[in-house]
Queue: 2 jobs
Job 1
Amino acid sequence: MVLYHGSKEIVEYPEIRKARFQKDFYFGFYCTLYAEQAKRWATRYGDGYINKYEYVPSSTLNCLYFEEMTEEWLDFIVACRRGIPHKYDIVEGPMADDTIYNYIQNYLDGKISRAAFWELAKFKYPTHQISFHTISALDTLTFVGSEVVYGDKK
């Protein structure tokens, strides 16, 4: 299976980096099945690269998979965004893009109810992310190349 990672640089050797803010599935190396989504990641701030990897799943890893946005998915993202680590090597599921993230933040801040979150979230286009959280998880990826993509921002 081919996965894509959008970045401002070529990433031949993926890394797990601790950042200022936690992401949907906590700190990890994030990829997607969708090249167009990776392009959006790569061109957020200008030109970038879509990195391509061959992914071979491993039955020895502890994986969590969310097929769609569910109550469990929301609770998991809320915990990760609050900085609560998890025990998974790989987590896969829908992405809380900027709009969805704003709804999650409003829910966390008590500005909207859980029911209101779901009402707002149901009209979003499908997204996908798979995050790698351990060295063993990164070993399931093999870099196969990259391509430059051009952003609209100058």
Job 2
Amino acid sequence: MKNKKRTTLLKFWTTRYLVTLVIGLILLGAGSLWWIQKTTLENRLKLIEYLAVETANRVIQSHGMMEVDPFFNRMLEERARVLQLEKEPELFITDLNGEAIFSRPRHMGPGRMGPKSQSKIDIPSGVFEKDDTVQKLDIDGIGIMYAVKSPIMENGNQIGWVVLMQSKDELSDVNQEYRLLIVLLVGLGLLGWVVIYLLSKKILKPILEVARAATQIKEGNYDLNLNTESNEQEIYELVSSFTEMTNRLLQLETLRAELLAGVTHDLKTPVTSISGLVQAVRDGVVSGNERDEFLDITLKEVNRLQTMISDLLDFNSLAAGAFSIRPEPCNMNELVQNIVREWAVTQARPIDYHVKLPDGVVYRTIDPLRLQQIMINLINNASQSLDGGGLITIVLTDNSIDVKDTGAGIPEREQPYIFERFFRGEKKKLKVRGLGLGLPFSKMLAKALDGDLLLKESSTSGSTFSILFEGETH
């Protein structure tokens, strides 16, 4: 299978952001251009209406002919500049029948009032037939044009019309605004790209550090120093979680090394003892009662080996899910009492213990054999912590079983690791041979019973482990 070509996260996101930004700006620009054209067209048409009215007011009738004041042409030029039009609108002054008696087309210079002037643009007859002041026209050879008309009044009587005509393209043309809009959009695009590039680079820095650290871990180097100072919550959680994971891996690596050394020692010691004892018996070095004593010691060492192997097998079976749970309705008061009593009978020396039961009977559906395994392990640990004297208290409630002891307690630095597989405290390493699977195995059993096993408290006055159960009693 060919390796898929990959790109950097910085390039991947900045490129896509830039494409998205460009598309967004293009759409924004198109909308803005349409809006500018629309509002410009509306505003200019209103101004042309005012110009038509003002032109009509300047037209007077003298000796049977319509005239304007001497400043009429200058007024038209000034109004065109106000409209910001490159070309003046077509101006027509007509009689009541729509016959043009004066025109100021763009292809002609300023004219005088007088005989009819010819224009290349004729006024459509429909302009005078409709009452609308502003009309949209479609003229052959020219395209869409707007016509604005205003009546010429004298002494309350209408004597003619003023008609101004301008093409739609000229009315909507705002080159300066277009240039400003393009500059603005390009500036926003560049600014947005620079900002996202810098922000992405800042965010990616800790991610790249984590990626490089993961590569080092893959190569077996757990001694890392990541910067966990970050203002972003998600980045902080990522780096902190990775740092914690690295510390756990380092701890597990240490435990693995200790396990190899511990298991080697714990297996080698009984094997060496068994070999030496059997050799002595076979060679006849010992006989009689001493021979029987050697054989008894050999059996104890064999039993210890079997226990260690059984712990490994049970733990692996539970971890692999190949472990059966057979729940059944149980009277928890009787079950707890029987488990503690059976344990006490098997002890080589008497142990002070006390079982506290609730006032009412607690019934729960549970696997009694698996619960016995958990409790026996907890009580054995409590017995080992007493160091020859003290009290073990087992407390049953509706949703938990507490196993308390008055021993020396678990050192605070070791408490976070007591449920790690193969972990054994410093004191326990010297006193008890084992694989460090008791508490991890018990916790996994508790979870298989839909519960949990927790260290409730531990101090120099003793420790308390709690088996917690979920669900209601019945």
